[in-house]
Here is the input.
Amino acid sequence: MQRTSFRLAAVLAAGALALSACGSDEGGDDGGDGGDNGGDASAEAGGGGDAGGDGITIGIKYDQPGLGQQDGDTYSGMGVDIAKAVAEGLGYSEDQITFEEAISSQRETLLETNQVDLVVATYSITDERSERVQFAGPYFVAGQDLLVTTDSDIAGPEDMQGKLLCSVTGSTSAQNVKDDYPDVQLQEYGSYSECVSQLATGTVDALTTDDTILAGYAAQEQYAGQLKVVGNTFSEENYGIGLNKEDDRCEEVNEILQGMWDDGTMEQIIEDNLGAADYTPNADLNPPAEIGGHCQA
Amino acid sequence: MLELIQEFELLAAFWMTIRLTLWSALFSLIIGTFVAIMRLSPVKVLQSIGTSYVNLLRNTPLTLIIVGTSLVLWGQLGLEPASRDSSTFIVDLNFRLAVLGLSVYHAAFVCEAIRSGVNTIPLGQAEAARSIGLTFGQSLRHVILPQGFRGAITPLGNTLIALTKNTTVASAIGVMDPAYQLDNIAEFRPDVLFLGFAVIALGFVVLTLPVGLIISALSSRLAVKR
Here is the structure.
């Protein structure tokens, strides 16, 4: 009996420790200044996370291979590399960058509340979003496409009659298909990974979203040689970098992005991250005709 | 607000919630009663099957069960409770898989609610039933379950309310319920996101509050007066 109560006390004490650790972590995050150590007083002193702070917080995707992926405490992908290059252009060194996860539905909120300074997360520029945030870019023009198994003969959305198509709930790609191809049967999941797994087992016939995202999945090791991007895009997605409306660095980011296309950095980043899937960006649209025009500050 | 309700077909979404709730409530009541009978039966094997069912299902996250019906039952094992020829194949399939997942999950809670109702019956009732020569089946049907259900109305009602709200998990496999439409609002109308939250929260209050009131009224009217 005594042993039991001692154990109980030990468990409670451990629980209390764990909880208090959480508390101090959150304190650091709330500062929004990108200090990665909650107890670090100098990091907390940075304040609101705007220009002039001693670090920069960038929202990226954590779960999209090839575009923004977290692997332990390292991050990889096209969005991550572009984010690093832009941060460098703005005068931050690499150890001043803090990455935060920017889930699609939370991107505007993260920017409005200054929890992140930039969002580089396959963020298409749209009028609705421009109501709440401003965009630098477009830095890249992607298009909606289909991912199919390598032995499939589907060449475009017209061939989807009677087939099953997969996409993600609350995505532009899903809505486009519903509007333009109302006869196609569309399965929607919470994330692309579920679609890819259903595609690999042959349960669904194709997965649709931006070609960059598809190329990222096709390039994954476990699906090597099994999946291919059809290469017949049927929409234009202008990827921008999201900023808070008050942020005056928008034009500066535009110049950095223009510079990255001019000196070939951007092509190198695309090749490094998506090359394994034999992906080549649509040459008619890339580099984007005009980088800029969406700043508001 | 009306514009938002129309644009995202929120009425249809809440109708989906009601359909999911009613079908899952029906099936989980059937499965739950069955499992409760197993747990109450004098046969050890049935008892442990019932106990395992409850412990397994009750302690598995609902999201895992729902996504599992789609990715594992349909994706890996090829279970297709809908016709491929139908033009609404995916919609039917997802609805039925969601009802399946919700039913087996909530059956565990229904089982425990019924057992708690049965526990309100004085032991003398079961002993009396036995002593006048009723079999286990007869005593269940005529003595134990009728009183047990009447004692279980409040916990069953709580399970029903929890079920109503839990149906939102079905959006994980693409069932067009309010949570699914909230995802769409977040994507296409981020400017009115918080209004969307409020409308959907209000919708659930409208659905669950009357259920709570009816349950309270019923439980005081039907309770076995002792």
User: Anything to note?
Assistant: Residues 15-174 of chain B form a domain with the MetI-like fold fold (CATH 1.10.3720.10). Residues 50 and 112 of chain B are 10 Å apart (CA to CA). Chain B has a mean pLDDT of 93. The radius of gyration of chain B is 20 Å.
